[in-house]
Amino acid sequence: MTPTDPHKRLNLRFIALAIGMFAIGTDSFVVAGILPSVAEDLHVDVPTSAELITAYALAYAILSPVIASVAGRASRKALLIGGLAVFVAANIGTGLAPTFQTAIAFRVVAALGGAMFTPTAAGAVVALAGPEKRATALSILFGGLSAATALGSPIGTAISGITDWRGTMMFVAAVGALATVAVLIGLPAVPRPPAVPFKQRLSPLTDARITLTLLLLLIAYSGLFVLYTYVSQVFRPATGGDGTTLAWLLFAWGAAAVVGNLFAGRLTDAFGNRIVINTAGVTAVLVFLTTPWSSRHLVSAFIAVVIWGACGWAMLVPIQHRLVGVNPAASQLSISLSSSANYIGVSLAPIVGGVLLDDMVPVNHLGVPAAAIVATGLLIGELSHRLTARQAKAAAVATSPGATATPSLANRR
Whose CA is closest to 77, among 173, 191, 176, 195? Predict the structure, then answer.
């Protein structure tokens, strides 16, 4: 046996978990591309069909920390397999749903499966990898999520164009079933982490710097996903309503998202999180403002979604970097809350977009108010940066030699 064999086995275990992340990520992103098919088949309008996204994202945001607390003593492998089994069954149920209300109910159950799997998978790779392989392990795991944006979502959208939206849900269920088998066969027993009470999981919210940063994430990603939720409608002039063309557009968005996510870490290390967040965010705002024109032609639409995908996902890493920097001791809890904030933002996007389309703007101008929402998030982010910088400066002054000398001189006087 060669010295590299243990590392190969370890990477294969992480790949098994990454397949699960690919399935869950595909389920999160693919629905936006199949909304017209859902609406036509289940006899609702497109904004109503977007409630499938809201139901999944909001249920995931709420259930994820709850399950992490309640199931803290459960076997990690059993939780992973159980989560995938629930996920697969729920997606089959969604694909067979006779009514829109039934589909909504199964989307909530699918979110339950995702909430059981995703945080557990992240904890499993950390436990199995050890400190020296932790970054590699996490990159493999979340590579599955990135691949879902670049491949899973456009493949699912293309399948919907060939069959219908029900075929897409069966595709997601099939990938989830493959992940279940991979985890069952390839993953060993995983050590259980220490249990963390639910109240303690919320403790970072008492820090205004963390709360403001989480609000930045929630509001900015709500704005970003207002446009993504209705991407099939906004860019319909460019795609002509063709599902295959839309799939290629989503592929371009997802590929750019992977690139933006990959480079965000290096850029944040080089320039700091504030510059990366603001540069990416402002660029996305400008692109959104151009969508009334860029959505008319296929070439301009591709350019718009590439820039939007890269900048939107480039914001995620520096936001997490800021959360970790504010209070390193509570970094795991803060990042867990950031996942919930992200999904709450995604869950609000269809509601906000539906209200805007009903009462305020035509669909080809949806990018304009979406840009305003992202800009609001950036302003809140600037408040979080200023508060963080002010408190860091105060702490530096308090611990400087001059600061300690001054009280002693005052005491001698």
Answer: 191
CA–CA dist 241, 247 (Å, integer)? 11
A 10 A CB-CB count for 157 gives 29
**Residue holding tokens 């319909």?**
236
Contact indicator for 173, 92 with CB cutoff of 8 Å: yes
Q: Is residue 321 scored above 70 in pLDDT?
A: yes
Q: At what angle do helices 331-359 and 367-399 cross, to 10 degrees?
A: 150
Q: What is the DSSP letter of 195?
A: P
Contact 54, 350 (CB under 8 A): yes
Residue 237 has pLDDT above 90, yes or no: yes
**Cα distances (Å, whole numbers) of residue 407 to 293, 395, 401:** 63, 16, 11
Mean pLDDT over 222-249 rounds to 91
Tokens of 4: 């590299």
Question: What are the residues whose beta carbons fall under 8 Å from the beta carbon of 197, sequence distance 6 or more?
Answer: 69
Closest CA to 246 of 47, 35, 21: 35
Distance CA 4, CA 34 (A): 44
